[in-house]
Design goal:
Layout (H helix, E strand, L loop, with lengths): L1 E5 L6 H11 L6 E6 L5 E6 L5 H15 L9 E5 L10 H7 L10 H19 L3 E3 L4 E3 H6 L2 H4 L6 E4 L4 H9 L3 H4 L1 E7 L4 H8 L8 E10 L14 E11 L1 H21 L4 E5 L10 H9 L3 E7 L6 E11 L3 H4 L10 E8 H12 L8 H7 L9
Parallel strand pairs: 5-9
Antiparallel strand pairs: 1-3, 2-3, 4-11, 6-8, 7-8, 9-10, 10-14, 11-12, 12-13, 13-14
Length: about 375
């Protein structure tokens, strides 16, 4: 069943897009949700047996919140088209190398991920980055300290556990109600790598600028019907985290942004860099997103896929100010909260963009692309 919710006489285009972004994570029992660009209506595809009442209520409540939102558009920084020697990869290529639900990658998809990461590590080490490795789980207390849970509740995967009590463990074998027996642990699956860096440096006083880099597995709770292709619940990120004065953060951020754009062009990909904001879930916090846009605090590198692949972010360049150093008490020599920045690369998405552009036969890819991917050396021991 399809349900249509008109918005053209109630919301402007940007408000309608913001409504859609929140609605996707506000209702269950659906197989699709989109904005009709011609009529500006929200189209919701309901699964059999789904009650309409809760969906109607969610749409009504979100529309009421969005009506008062003032939303600023993104500003373009760079844009390029795909090289003429790029060709669209076939759907079979993506299906053969990427599992539809993200459960596995095969062959060339794995090789590309490693090649891309070596390039990124080489960049980071040219900027004197120190290598780090962190676990996939992160303490809930760490996420609370940076207000991630309260701000992005739609993204969190918590970790459950069975109590270490004999009578409880015996019930696991006897009963099928695992939800009733499990409890929340003090951990969540990490939604980003950078939070581990702040936790490591918590309470530190740094005498000079510091750059850290780590590759980690990150997790986001996606709507099940959206998972696939470039959108995954579990994905690999290479992050470069900067600590220093505001001028150092901005200089380094711009340098990484230019290097990323240069690589993007050498690989013959199509897309753009534009100002962006984080996906704040609650309309009451939308002002933070507008501040990011107005202050150029966040840029995203957007790749364009084939005819029906859409566009998706493959990197972000963030100036955090002292918003995270302050709660973690990462201080400078004068005991003032340091400024920080985070450069994040979605490795799986870079690989997907390349496969979409050139297909699965690596030997037929343009020589310049293969040479670029094969140019990186292994990380230098520290």
């Amino acid at each position: 069943m399809i349900k249509t919710y008109p918005t053209s006489n109630i919301l402007n285009e940007r408000q309608a897009q913001s409504l859609l972004a929140k609605l996707i994570y506000s209702i269950e029992g659906i197989s699709g949700c989109r904005l009709d660009e011609t009529t500006q209506a929200i189209i919701v595809e309901l699964l059999p047996g789904t009650a309409q009442g809760p969906i109607d209520d969610a749409v009504e409540r979100l529309i009421a919140k969005e009506r008062s939102s003032r939303i600023i558009g993104s500003r373009l920084y760079r844009e390029t088209e795909a090289r003429e020697d790029a060709r669209a990869g076939t759907p079979e290529t993506a299906g053969e190398l990427f599992a539809p639900n993200g459960a596995w990658k095969r062959g060339l998809a794995v090789t590309l991920s490693e090649q891309i990461d070596r390039l990124l590590v080489e960049w980071a080490q040219r900027h004197q980055a120190q290598l780090r490795s962190y676990p996939s789980m992160i303490p809930v207390e760490t996420l609370r300290k940076c207000r991630y849970i309260e701000t992005f509740p739609q993204n969190i995967h918590f970790v459950s556990e069975f109590p270490h009590r004999l009578e409880e463990l015996e019930k696991v074998r006897e009963a099928g109600d695992l939800n009733g027996l499990a409890r929340l642990s003090p951990y969540a699956l990490s939604p980003a790598v950078c939070f581990h860096c702040y936790a490591e440096l918590s309470g530190s006083r740094l005498q000079e600028p510091l750059v850290l880099t780590s590759r980690g597995t990150c997790f986001r709770h996606e709507a099940a019907w959206r998972v696939g292709k470039h959108r995954l619940q579990e994905f690999s990120m290479r992050e470069i985290v900067l600590f220093g004065e505001a001028s150092f953060i901005e200089e380094e951020r711009r340098a990484f942004m230019e290097e990323a754009w240069s690589l993007f062009e050498r690989l013959g990909l199509a897309g753009k860099i534009e100002t962006a904001s984080d996906p704040f879930f609650f309309s009451e916090e939308s002002g933070k997103g507008q501040q990011q846009l107005m202050g150029n605090m966040k840029y995203e590198l957007i790749a364009r896929a084939g005819e029906d692949g859409g566009s998706f972010s493959i990197a972000s360049f963030n100036h955090m100010g002292d918003s995270l150093c302050k709660p973690f008490e990462v201080l400078d020599a004068e005991a003032n909260p340091m400024q920080s920045g985070c450069i994040a690369f979605g490795i799986d998405r870079w690989a997907y963009a390349l496969l979409d552009g050139y297909g699965g036969d690596y030997g037929k890819w343009p020589a310049r692309v293969r040479e670029t991917l094969e140019s990186a050396r292994m990380a230098v021991p520290q």
